[in-house]
Amino acid sequence: MLYLYVILDIFSRYTVGWMVASRESATLARKLIRETCAKQGITHEQLTLHADRGSSMKSKAVALLLADLGVTKTHSRPHVSNDNPFSESQFKTLKYRPEFPKRFGSLQDARAFCQPFFHWYNTEHRHAGIAFMTPEDVHYGRAKQIFDTRSAALDAAFAAHPKRFKGKRPVPKSLPEAVWINPPVEVDENSGQEEAA
To answer: How many Å apart are CA 104 and CA 88, to the nearest integer?
Structure first.
């Protein structure tokens, strides 16, 4: 059995870190988290890591590492397999690729498959949830430039052929303002009821 560890930025859908291993291990999870935080320049109190309830992610070693790194952690709800729609969507994209094999011959085969997959996913795959941009474009701050370019192209098309648009100026899809797995809860002072922000 092989295990795929993935760290996904849910706002941009960018895979910031991944690893394929032959076992589930707190030591391996710690290594991936530490290396990914360093590579991405994560500072204290900047990151929330949402994880499944696997033994490595619930381990004391990983909890201590996250505390040392100043990373807040949350976990999926017990007995809920689809608590993180972003990672579920990514795994579905992975498994439904035409070249995804029925079985990997070895750990090296799995790594050889994942290397180009994550490159493609980050740099070429366009997501409806992020305005049909690539994760790389959003993660590295190119979204506004792309939005402006799309707006200019649509404005030119509208100016040249307004009847094609039924007289209504087209606007490109924009990025969401925020993305949450567990939105913060605010208490309504009037009713005392909790509401998702």
So the answer is: 20
For the stretch 110-132, pLDDT in tens is 999 999 999 999 999 999 999 99
Query: Are 173 and 131 within 8 A, CB to CB?
Result: yes
Tell the residue number behind the tokens 């990151």, with chain if given.
47
Between the alpha carbon of residue 55 and those of residues 16, 20, 49, 157, the distances in Å are 22, 16, 15, 55
* Least confident piece of the model among 108-122, 158-172, 177-191: 177-191
Give the C-alpha separation, 61 to 163, whole Å.
63
Distance CA 32, CA 24 (A): 12
**Per-residue model confidence (pLDDT) at position 151:** 97
φ/ψ bin of 192: left (φ > 0), alpha (ψ from -120 to 50), beta (otherwise): left
Structural domains of the chain, ranges and CATH numbers in brackets: 3-138 (3.30.420.10)
Kindly state the average pLDDT of the residues 94-101: 94
